[in-house]
Design brief:
By secondary structure, the chain is of the alpha+beta class. Helices cover 34% and strands 36% of the residues. A hairpin with a 3-residue loop joins strand 2 and strand 3. The mean pLDDT is 93.
């Protein structure tokens, strides 16, 4: 008999809930995608990105609305969500992750939602700040 079968047989609801939560976390695969740092303007973003490139050899590239260092740090060319910027958390299944987080009473900034050419959700900001950073949920590349 497997552990989960034993828990069900013994009506150990707490253990079943913990196993279920663990499997949901495994499926969603939450991971740090990048940190976006708000800059006043493009010149400041470029300057800060250049410092990171010089210090750590993390090559910079232009990402359109940001300048990236090795896709780890995104220096935003203009202020965006969050006092200091955002922390982007990636997930295997963004639609399921949104549903899961809404079940935890988490709200989203709906107007921040971004979609790909197929109309699929690829990113959205949570209506939460942590340490002056907004939280952004992003779809992992499939």
């Amino acid at each position: 008999m497997t552990t989960s079968e034993e828990y069900m047989k013994n009506n150990n609801i707490e253990k079943i809930k913990n196993l279920t939560e663990q499997e949901i976390q495994n499926m969603l695969g939450f991971d740090l995608a990048h940190i976006g740092i708000n800059s006043d303007n493009e010149e400041r973003a470029d300057n800060d990105s250049s410092k990171i490139e010089y210090l750590f050899g993390l090559n910079k590239s232009d990402g359109g609305t940001y300048i990236s260092n090795a896709n780890i740090l995104h220096f935003m060319k203009e202020k965006s969500y969050g006092k200091n910027g955002h922390i982007a958390i990636s997930t295997n299944f963004i639609e399921y992750a949104v549903f899961y987080l809404k079940s935890k009473q988490i709200e989203f900034i709906e107007e921040s939602a971004r979609f790909n050419e197929k109309g699929e959700l690829v990113s959205i900001y949570l209506d939460i700040m942590v340490g002056g950073f907004a939280l952004r949920l992003v779809q992992k590349n499939k």
